[in-house]
Amino acid sequence: MHVAILLYPRFTALDAVGPYTVLAFAPGWTVTFVAAEPGPVTDDQGTLTLTATASYEDLPHPDVIVVPGGPGTFDAMSDEALLGWLRGAHEHSRWTTSVCSGSFILAAAGLLEGLRATSHWGVLDMLRQYGAEPVSERVVSQGRIVTAAGVSAGIDMALTLLAQATDETTAQSVQLVIEYDPHPPFDAGSPKTAPEGLRELALKLIA
After folding, report:
1. CA distances to 73, 83, 173 from 31, in Å
2. Is 100 labeled as catalytic in the residue annotation?
3. Which of the chain's termini has less CB crowding within 10 Å, N or C?
4. Does the pLDDT at position 207 exceed 90?
C-alpha cells in the first residue's frame, strides 16, 4: 500500500506527521510526502520543514491520499495544480483522506459534494458552503473518503483507516507500538467540554 501525504506551505505539522507515524509502521506500507516539486515545505509556524521526496508527476496514483490542514489551506484551495493532482489521484485511490481543515481542499476539488464530513471545530460549519454536510465527529467515513477533525484526530483517522484496510489486530498493534493511550491533563480538547471563554482564546491562537 502506497500512501501519499500532501504538503503545501503553512500546513500544520501534526496533521501530516500523526498519520505518517501510524501508517509508516504498518507492515508492507510505504509513505511518501508529495508536493508540487521535491524539496522542503515549511509548516504553519515557519520553523519546521518536511521534505517532499516526490512531485505530483512522480506519484500520480497512490493507494491512499492524506491531505493535512493548516492556515495554508485556503491558499491551497485555489492552487489548480494541487487540485488537479488530487482529482486525478482520487480517481485511482482506495482511500482519500483529510485531517483538520484539509477537508476544505477535498471540497475545493469537488470530492465532498453531498457527503458528511468533518474538520476543525473552528471552521466546521463553513464546509456547508462547499457542498458538504458538516458533522461534529472525530472521524467520518463516507465510502472511500475519510475525514478527521482537528489536528490530533489524524492519528485516530489513520488507525481507523488501517483497521479497514488490514484488520483490527494490525491497527491495534501499531497503536501499542506508538503507545497511543491518551490521558490529557485537561478536559478542554473539545468546545463541548472546554471551560467558558476558552473557545474565544483558542480562536485567537489560530488567527
Report:
1. 21, 20, 18
2. yes
3. C
4. no
